[in-house]
Amino acid sequence: MEFVAHGIDLVDCPRIEDMVKRHGERFINRVFTPAEQAYAKANKNEIEKLAGRFAAKEAVLKLMGTGWRGKIAWTDIEVVNNSAGQPEVTLGGEVKKIAERLGITHISISITHTANFAIASAVAIAQKGQP
Length: 131
What we know:
The chain is α+β, with helices and mostly antiparallel strands. It is about 45% helix and about 30% strand. The chain is globular, with a radius of gyration of 14 Å.
């Protein structure tokens, strides 16, 4: 395996809270998968969890070099925790196609947050010999 790219993003939690208050389910359903929504709702710090997932999605788009544009949907990137509590990324749709073109076989993600900020760092890995 070899390192391909890195992406990082910082999100202001009160900004996400404001988006939820102003746009409600429309915003939540557009940005977060049902599994991400369920995870956030199951925690007392729901906004921090949503902000962390938002930052993770932005970090993934940065490592892809695309940003959010074209046919990319926010829900093309899903961040769920494994049984040990570690966040893992699953790609679908247009983002999965881009990752395949880039030779990306795995994305490692790390998320941390406070009441005010959430930050995520994403590292793309490819098999040796891939682009």
